[in-house]
Amino acid sequence: MILEKIKKKINKFIFYISNKNLGIINILFIKIYILIFKININEYEKNINEYNSFNDFFCRKLKNNRIINNNNNIIISPVDGLITKIGKIDYKNNVFIKGKNYSLYNIVQDINCINYFNNGNYIIIYLSPSNYHRIHMIYNGFIKKMIYTTGNLNTVNTNSYLGSYSKLFQNERVSCLLKTNFGYVLKIFIGSIIVGNIYLNWHGIVNKNYSTESGIWDYNNNGFFFKKGDEIGKFMLGSSIMLIFQNNKKIKFYKNIKENNKILFGDILIKM
User: Fold this and answer.
1) Over the range 93-119, which residues count as b (16 or more CB within 10 Å of their CB) and which as e?
2) Among 18, 56, 77, 80, which one carries the catalytic annotation?
3) In this predicted model, what pLDDT tens digit does every residue of 101-131 receive, in sequence order?
4) Exposure winner among 61, 169, 184, 213, fewest CB in 10 A?
């Protein structure tokens, strides 16, 4: 508990510094970061010296919009990243990974929300420090509910995925319930050791004040409508996305969607 409090204080300080305009220090740090993580800066909207802070760079926009397949039978990837796990939710709403069951209720902590997803399908995508960190809509639909679940800020990387997923599901996370023409989808944003802040376009920064309490925002009959490909949020220094699809015979992952494959925002995720 004490260690987690220290982690959160460090995270809060890092987030504060990463949003400050430090002039030449920003530029130097960004250049080092680009070299370490081999980022192709030509893909992005701004030049290095145009970013106001490190976080401005971390959440950088693409220079050219990705081509979005508007076929109604196509569901697209919401992010750039690495596919770490694909699987099924069982009839008791458990996620089975590497010989262990993880309760979907413990992950989301909203019983009404998870009841849509027994016998559904899921995919987990890891966003590395080199990836584009904005998140987009997978299909036309409404955001009906948002759940913030307080938690730890454990390190998340490809090495941690090789072990247990327990630490991943203990991290701070935000779950968004989407309603689409093919059924409900749960999109879960999972934080990491220096990724405590998630920004959503209709809400702003979730848990801006570093609260230790979870929260639920129910948008009732209205919700927020987004088109396929629309930007809906960004990780402000972040980590992994889990998508859970309501049981539907038409939901089958596309032929190239396999564990340990890389994926880009806009790629075909599911072809119905």
Assistant:
1) bbbebeeeebebeebbbbeebbebbbe
2) 80
3) 888 998 898 988 899 999 999 999 999 889 9
4) 213
Assess whether 136 carries a catalytic annotation.
yes
* Strand ranges inside the chain, DSSP E: 74-76, 81-88, 94-97, 100-103, 121-126, 134-136, 141-149, 173-180, 183-190, 197-200, 204-206, 215-218, 224-226, 231-236, 240-245, 262-263, 268-271
Among residues 119, 116, 95, 97, the alpha carbon closest in space to that of 106 is found at 95
What's the Cα-to-Cα distance from 37 to each of 22, 30, 33, 111, 199, rounded to whole Å?
Answer: 21, 11, 6, 40, 23
Cβ proximity of 140 and 211 under 8 Å: no
85 compared with 6, residue with greater pLDDT: 85
Q: So where are the chain's domains? A: 2-58, 74-271
Whether the CB-CB separation of 132 and 62 falls below 8 Å is answered with: yes
Count Cα atoms within 13 angstroms, Cβ side, for 88: 10
Q: Which residue of the set 175, 192, 239, 240 is catalytic?
A: 239
Tell me: the pLDDT tens digits for 22-75?
889 999 999 999 999 999 999 999 999 999 998 899 899 999 889 999 999 999
Specify whether 90 is catalytic.
no
Q: What is the pTM of this model?
A: 0.90
Cα separation of 233 and 136, whole Å?
A: 7
The set of residues, in sequence order, having a beta carbon less than 8 Å from that of 1 and lying 6+ positions away, is none
Q: Give me the catalytic one of 56, 110, 136, 175.
A: 136
Phi, psi of 121 (to 5 degrees): -115, 150
